[in-house]
Design a protein that fits this description.
The structure holds two protein chains of two kinds. Chain A is 62% helix and 0% strand. Chain A is mostly helical. Chain A has a single domain (9-48, 55-137, 152-277), classed as Fumarate Reductase Cytochrome B subunit (Up-down Bundle). In chain A, α3 crosses α4, α4 packs across α5 (106-115) and α7 (165-190) packs antiparallel against α8 (195-214). Chain A is globular and about 85 Å long. The N and C termini of chain A lie far apart (83 Å). In chain B, α1 crosses α8 (132-145) and α19 (390-411) packs across α20. Chain B folds into three domains: 17-145, Fumarate Reductase Iron-sulfur Protein, Chain B, domain 2; 168-310, no CATH class; 322-449, Rossmann fold (3-Layer(aba) Sandwich), CATH 3.40.50. By secondary structure, chain B is mainly alpha-helical. Chain B has a four-stranded parallel β-sheet with strand order 2-1-3-4. In chain B, strands 6-5-7-8 form a four-stranded parallel β-sheet, with helices on both faces. Chain B is globular. Helices cover 52% and strands 6% of the residues of chain B. The two termini of chain B are 40 Å apart. The chains are: A mainly alpha, B mainly alpha. The interface between A and B is large, with 64 and 67 residues.
């Protein structure tokens, strides 16, 4: 007996149905369980060993400056000493590429808002699929008449030339391709763990299937009337896998690891040791001298 | 003068690769069991291998790309995953969980683990707040338990407890002689009368005496009451921490804490660059030493800054043109900004942190020929390098680092480069660096504050 929603589905057993009704709910459950597992481990580790040795006297200015510094110092340092990773790693992969694509692409906003209604608040910031309209395929020719009023539906205005699904996908593919090549080299030359290569291949596949689905293109092996559903289904299955992998892989950094790590660093460096800026350049408040 | 002290310079290693591998796994579990807390778990599990920390490490920049903080810390992560995580046990090499299989691989890990001065610069540049130095220190502890430690550092570390618990007669004689000289030249308070007990150790008194002299002159001018211990408080405490020998480090630290309290002092004043300050003040829970609540540990730079700034003693002489080169742990993990601030206000113009993040060589200066020679004389032990040993390679790499740092310092347009730590100056001298003019912070302050 099929579930109620599948009874009226013309393709109850295709990839799309599999993604929507089985993989995605399962991924969410795995994500929640994995998240709880990792948090529990951290709490147990906290109880296991005393963390803080000493608390230095610090003022509110030091605390604020220290908090700002732990976040801005690494990209500032990279801007001077590590430009390649700043541009291709931080900027291309994260800031310009994947994050806007995952959270602000119009199609994704529609999907998230269906399940989480409050997400629709982000509609004004939604990014269209291409520079001209919300539906034009990547390499499809379009009439100049359309291009005369290209940005009417986006708050981003002229920025839509860059902030659109097509361009962001290309940027992300270049950046992820670079990281994939780097990890492949590291795996072969230095015996680095293969899991990183697998994760970057996974990301690349998500990007490619997403771009194909957005443009109603198909893959050679997916034919027939449900080809579009299959491509989209494949994209969603891979995305579901991504979600399920988050608590157990390096993907963890962008939902929890990075933010938590910086808080840990702030507590360690500023709250406990009193260092505000790099090198503790801000002089700590006057110490009470013990008289014995 | 040369009194031989018979101590094991290396630990007996088990025979057979399989047995050694099993032992390594067992030792890893013990270290994890004992020292894994919340920050360590985050450090071990949250790294994404982005390599953002690498350019801050001088060994990566000047010696070899193999010596990146993430690369060195990953060796511990491999052991941790293989022995202590479910994914590591299930998926093995796929997720980078593995134990070294051959003797050569263990030697390779050993080489990596000791190409870190644990200066803390990578902690600042990591986008995820990971302190690779802590992880590498854990790796050293595993290696130590496994029987691997550089023989000279290991010998000095083992000697440290002996030095403070029962210094032998010739050492005590030499110590008393130098301390008498210092007392003659400075306003040292009688035992129990000073407010601060100065942490004097073998390294400071016999290797770094001229800078100690300079610091004391500045303290005298500020009318700060301080006293000396009646015995050397170690070689350079807590040195056993360097080789991951936590048990001895704990005993050394506890001895120093209790000694200070028993002599009636509430403040222990550190004149050293950064390691003793950070290790005795902040890191003691890491090796489970128990610092009494009534004991405060203060760095001399902070005390001088406070004395001269708040108490309105001699006005600052704004003169010179200097770059402050932050020393290792004092700036990164010590939270003391006073050292750089002191240079800033005694020099004009002042180039702020052009060298930042600077990573020094820390404990590695103990391997320099000059230091070994001095320590050999006073401690009565042979600190001879073995052929093709890790130490020999370290010295050669240290020289490359010193030249690299000198090039970086040279880029700054100032005439003086003020170092917070003697180690870096010693290594620069050992590398025969000529294009920079290294001045110790103590000498700088003596020259400008007492003008």
């Amino acid at each position: 007996m099929l579930p109620f929603t599948l009874q009226f589905n013309p393709y109850p057993f295709d990839l799309y149905s599999l993604a929507i009704y089985i993989i995605f709910p399962l991924s969410i459950i795995i994500f929640i369980v994995g998240f709880a597992y990792r948090i529990t481990r951290l709490i147990l580790a906290l109880r296991r060993k005393k963390w803080v040795a000493y608390r230095a006297p610090v003022g509110i200015t030091t605390l604020i400056l220290g908090l700002v510094n732990v976040y801005i110092y690494p990209p500032l340092f990279a801007a001077f000493r590590n430009k390649k990773d700043l541009v291709l790693g931080l900027m291309a992969v994260h800031m310009v590429g994947l994050l806007p694509l995952i959270f602000l692409l119009g199609q994704h906003v529609a999907f998230y808002a269906y399940f989480i209604p409050i997400y629709s608040l982000l509609w004004p910031l939604a990014i269209p699929i291409s520079a001209a309209t919300g539906s034009l395929p990547l390499f499809q020719q379009f009439e100049p008449a359309i291009a005369t009023q290209p940005f009417h539906s986006s708050i981003w205005g002229p920025l839509t030339v860059v902030l659109n699904g097509d361009v962001l996908t290309i940027i992300s593919l270049v950046a992820v391709g670079f990281k994939l090549g780097e990890r492949l080299y590291m795996m072969v030359k230095e015996g680095h763990r293969p899991s990183d290569v697998i994760l970057y291949i996974h990301l690349t596949l998500i990007l490619i299937t997403g771009a194909l689905a957005a443009h109603h293109e198909s893959l050679p092996f997916l034919t027939g009337a449900s080809a579009y559903r299959s491509v989209l289904g494949l994209h969603m299955i891979l995305a579901g896998l991504f979600l399920a992998l988050v608590p157990f892989t390096k993907y963890w950094h962008f939902v929890f690891g990075m933010f938590f790590g910086k808080i840990v660093e702030w507590i360690d460096r500023t709250v406990m040791r009193g260092a505000a800026l790099e090198g503790g350049r801000l002089v700590p408040p006057r110490r009470k001298v013990r008289r014995r | 003068m040369t009194r031989r002290v018979t101590l094991p310079t290396s630990i007996v290693k088990p025979r057979g690769e399989e047995a050694r591998r099993e032992l390594l796994a067992e030792e890893t579990r013990k270290v994890i069991e004992e020292y894994l807390g919340l920050p360590e778990m985050h450090f071990l599990e949250a790294c994404v291998d982005c390599g953002a920390c690498a350019p801050s490490c001088p060994f990566y920049k000047a010696v070899d790309k193999r010596y990146s903080p993430v690369g060195m810390a990953n060796e511990m992560r491999k052991l941790y995953k293989k022995t202590s995580t479910i994914t590591g046990k299930l998926l093995g090499r796929l997720v980078g969980a593995r134990l070294p299989e051959t003797e050569e691989e263990i030697e390779e890990i050993f080489d990596l683990a000791y190409h870190c001065s644990n200066c803390g610069a990578c902690y600042y540049t990591c986008p995820h707040g990971i302190d690779s130095g802590t992880i590498i220190a854990m790796l050293r502890s595993v290696l130590f338990r496994h029987g691997l430690a550089p023989s000279i550092i290991n010998l000095l570390a083992r000697l440290e407890l002996r030095v403070i618990e029962s210094p032998w007669r010739s050492l005590q004689y030499e110590w008393d002689r130098v301390i008498e000289e210092l007392k003659r030249d400075h306003n040292v308070a009688k035992e129990g009368e000073g407010r601060y007990l100065i942490l004097l150790d073998i390294y400071n008194v016999f290797v770094n005496k001229e800078n100690i002299d300079a610091y004391l002159e500045v303290l005298d001018a500020a009318n700060i009451k301080y006293s000396f211990p009646d015995r050397p408080l170690g070689v350079r405490p807590p040195l056993p921490l360097t080789v991951g020998h936590y048990e001895t480090a704990r005993r050394v630290a506890n001895f120093i804490y209790n000694y200070t309290i028993s002599k009636g002092y509430g403040n222990l004043l550190i004149l050293d660059g950064g390691y003793p300050y950070n290790d005795l003040k902040f890191a003691y829970t890491y090796y489970r030493a128990s610092k009494p609540r009534e004991l405060d540990i203060i760095h001399v730079a902070q005390l001088i800054y406070e004395s001269y700034l708040y108490e309105g003693l001699p006005a600052f002489t704004q003169w010179g043109k200097a770059t402050y080169i932050p020393s290792c742990n004092i700036d990164t993990r010590g939270g003391i900004g006073a050292a750089s601030k002191l240079v800033e206000i005694t020099a004009r113009p002042y180039e702020k942190h052009l060298m930042w993040p600077y990573a020094g060589v820390g404990w590695m200066s103990l391997l320099c020929p000059y230091v070994r020679e001095k320590l050999s004389i006073y401690l009565g032990v042979d600190l001879v390098l073995e052929e093709e040993s890790v130490e020999e390679k370290l010295i050669s790499d240290m020289r490359k680092v010193a030249r690299h740092l000198a090039e970086e310092a040279y880029k700054t347009s100032t005439g003086y480069h003020v170092f917070g730590c003697i180690d870096d100056i010693i290594v620069m001298r050992a590398a025969r660096v000529e294009n920079v003019n290294p001045v110790h912070l103590a000498q700088w302050l003596k020259q400008h504050l007492l003008k």
